[in-house]
Amino acid sequence: MVIKNPDPADEWTETCLKGLVREKLVDEVYKAIYAGKVKAYDYYTDDPMPVKQVKEIEKQAESDGTEVAKVQFLEDWYLDPLTFNLYKKVHYIMLAYEILDEKGNVRSYKAAFYVPFGLESNE
What we know:
The structure is a single chain. With 123 residues, this protein is an alpha+beta fold. The protein has one domain. The chain is 27% helix and 37% strand. It contains three helices and five strands. The protein has helices at residues 11-16, 22-34, 51-64, and strands at 40-42, 48-49, 68-80, 85-100, 106-116. A five-stranded antiparallel β-sheet has the order 2-1-5-4-3.
């Protein structure tokens, strides 16, 4: 899910993101990691990441001028056909940074790490 519109002329994406405070969402994830409330995991290997490594990712992105611009959720969705209520359980949130081309335009995105929901930080 895009959380930072790479093209402000894209009215549909602007409408979809209305009300989202992207910086707060991202800051809360980082604060929880740094406070030891949750653990970050490498998206590609599923290995736990030390806080120092997460800080290096954040610092590198800031120096490159890139920002967290996408999130991905791993979810289970359940539809009750009798009541037509939809329920979902979120397992994790993954943050992804922009990859910029030589002109500063968004070329693609790179997964940084994911943070599970509902797990104790000491597991």
